[in-house]
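Lab channel / #folding
Pinned by the channel admin:
"Please post every new chain as: sequence first, then the structure tokens as a reply. Keep commentary short and put observations after the output so the thread stays searchable."

First post following the new format, from NK:
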Amino acid sequence: MRKWTSLLAVAALVTGSAFATEAKTQGTEPTGLTVRAGVFFPSEQTVRDATADAWFTAGLEYKLGDIGVPNYTTGYRAHWSISADYYGQDDFTAVPVLVNYVGHANQFHYSAGAGVTFASLPVEDKTVFGYRLAIGLDFNTGKTPFFVEGGFMGAAGESVDTNLNGFFLVAGLNF
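Reply from TO:
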């Protein structure tokens, strides 16, 4: 499972980056694709002791559509998205596939997502409930807007409990 999820995450990032770069060079409208990478910090001490204090994380997110907001919310916009992330170290890996609500207010954004997580632990592989909460800062300068984001990702299920929960810090590009 570890090799499969690692290969899937790398392939998705490379493919997404290639499509987004191609779209940018052709001068088209934004594609709605977001690519991010950074560090995940497991919240469970026993997991950190068995692996490392910081793990690699990367993900892709695709904007599905805008959500109408009331007229009195000047400067606020929102949309639905679907995302796939990878985070892991050694025998502990997770690939959450989530549906997200993303809100933007000026240069700040936040998101809340829920879905399934394909979890791999030393003793077994499981598909469990997954979630992600994040807040970030957008830098919309130049042709490729980028952002920094922090938050919490988790997986909940029988025997997974808090083993794959933790905080993250990522940087990313919006295409």
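NK: Residues 2-25 form the longest helix (24 residues).
TO: also worth noting, Helices lie at 2-25, 45-50.
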